[in-house]
Amino acid sequence: EDFLTLIFKAMMKDTLNSSHPVSSAVQSSEQIEEMFDTLSYVKGASLLSMLKHYLTKDVFQAGIEVYLHNHNYGTAQSDDLWDSMNEITNGTLDVKKMMKTWIVHKGFPLVTVVRKGKIISVQQEKFLYRVEPENWTSDASYLWHIPLTYITNRCNFTHCINAYLLDQKSGT
């Protein structure tokens, strides 16, 4: 419950146009300090949780183990974690490409789902809680690679989870 409260507070901050990406280039020590705020930590934790759910717990754990083994007693960059995950997925999913869309964009997407018979349509756009006119910039080019999971009536809740990666503005 406490984690959900933190997530919702971070999401409220992230909906503002004055938000910042989880990862960006910095030029000074002051900028480094500004990057390590609640938004970065909570959004980062949420993104890792999303990735673990999409990859499955075992695949995610294996990727973490590869990452820790490859970088023990050394330094690492965010791409190193994604590269470790790519190593485990054997090229079946470009984790780096997917996660970059989440860490370099500020904010998060709003996904609209419409069902017409057996056809499900999904569409993404950047979610803004309120527009701050003095800080507003167009984010129309934002595109996330959104892992969506779903269960059909042919499955129960413990088996047969299907996955779809929405990597376009819309899909069916």
UniProtKB/TrEMBL annotation:
Gene Ontology BP term (one): proteolysis
Pfam families from the UniProt entry: Peptidase_M1
Keywords assigned by UniProt, alphabetized: Aminopeptidase, Hydrolase, Protease
Domain of life: Eukaryota
InterPro entries for the chain: Peptidase_M1_aminopeptidases (IPR050344), Peptidase_M1_dom (IPR014782), Peptidase_M4/M1_CTD_sf (IPR027268)
Domain Peptidase M1 membrane alanine aminopeptidase, chain residue ranges per copy: 7-102
Protein name: LCAP aminopeptidase
Source organism of the structure: Pomatorhinus ruficollis
